[in-house]
Amino acid sequence: MNIEDKVIAALWTLMGGRDFLQGKGLVGRIAEKTGIDPLEAKMTLGKLARKGITVGVSEKGEAFGRVSLTIEAPKREEPVSLIRWREALRAIGMDESEAATLAPCHDRLDGFSDADMRDLASGLKGLKSAQETEKNAPRFVVSAKYLLGSSKMLGSLPTLALKAFGIDIDAFPDAIPQIVVAGPENPEAVLLIENPHSFEEAIAAGCADKIALVVTYGYGLSRSGEAYGNSLTEAVAQAERLVPLIRKGNPPSPKTLLGHPQILFWGDLDREGLRIYASLRKGLPVLRASALYLPMLEAMKRGISHPYAKATAKEKQGTMERVPEDAMPLASICSDRGIDQEAVSREEIARLASMSLEEVGQGKCQR
């Protein structure tokens, strides 16, 4: 293959099936793709332009705007996996339009025998027919039931292809939505807590005798940092399906708890904590920031805080979006630094857990 052919091949590759590519930095990209010197790549582009093979390139090899080729694109050979997958779909009697929607699944099936592919195709067809009956069943269970006994198969196939085929993968939750709860039968308030360590501190402080405490269930090392708060947001969004794990007392059902008139949130005083609060408020308009943010605010004003850095596991926390009005005092102080909820003492937890930050501001809290 001569240099011109190499450059043309590189251009087709860079187009990736499109009719054109942007000219910015094109010489460097071609040089990297072909392994030739950038100056030689530029000169070759110029030659191709003079021959009328390239559009959007000057005769000196300088690319501008959109770059395209005037010659016919080479025929691309279909992957063997795609050919075999199509044959499997045809073998079980699937019509061409349905088979076309599932074609993108082929590259996930490396190592499958022809029989495996046919069985998978039959399983997908069966699941499509039965999905209304299986609705809200855990995704792992549905997958193992219909797709070769594999709990992970359904989640590994391309979502867009499955939806185009007619399987609504969102109808099958990918995890059992469990929350840990504690509290009396008729709680005075409900406190949603971002982290399990603070949940345990609230129990130790005696809060579960009067109010209900809620935290998402974490499996030891499988959860850390902001994962708890994000899981709490997901849990609240599916109140009907929540499975309660009772840590202490006899609290009402999750649905009843999330419908309580006095429901509060307490998390880390940082960008991510406030993002979680804002997200929760969308599904729970009555939710308010807990008075437990007060000692955290006071600590920050005394200089007790940390930067958003790798050592504090917060280097990836982005800028804050709009926060609810009652959290504005929190947002203004934690824009550059934060403090974790574990910094609040057990005594402060016992004193403030049942109230909102707004109530403290109105003088309802006795120090």
Describe the structure.
The chain contains 17 helices and eleven strands. The chain has helices at residues 3-15, 26-34, 38-50, 80-91, 96-102, 114-134, 139-146, 153-156, 159-165, 196-204, 227-236, 254-257, 271-283, 293-301, 328-333, 346-352, 357-361, and strands spanning 21-22, 54-57, 63-69, 178-183, 190-193, 212-216, 243-249, 263-266, 288-289, 306-307, 337-338. With 367 residues, the protein is α/β, with parallel strands linked by helices. It has three domains: 3-69, Arc Repressor Mutant, subunit A; 80-171; 178-361, Dna Topoisomerase Vi A Subunit, Chain: A, domain 2 (3-Layer(aba) Sandwich), CATH 3.40.1360. The chain has a six-stranded mixed β-sheet, with helices on both faces. It has a three-stranded antiparallel β-sheet with strand order 1-3-2. A two-stranded antiparallel ribbon has the order 10-11. It is flat and about 80 Å long. Helix 5 packs antiparallel against helix 9 (159-165) and helix 11 packs parallel to helix 13 (271-283). It is 43% helix and 12% strand.
Descriptive terms for the model:
single chain, 367 residues, alpha/beta, Arc Repressor Mutant, subunit A, Dna Topoisomerase Vi A Subunit, Chain: A, domain 2, 3 domains, six-stranded mixed β-sheet, three-stranded antiparallel β-sheet, 11 strands
Write a compact overview of the structure shown:
Helices cover 43% and strands 12% of the residues. With 367 residues, it is an alpha/beta fold. It has 3 domains: 3-69, Arc Repressor Mutant, subunit A (Orthogonal Bundle), CATH 1.10.10; 80-171; 178-361, 3-Layer(aba) Sandwich (Dna Topoisomerase Vi A Subunit, Chain: A, domain 2).
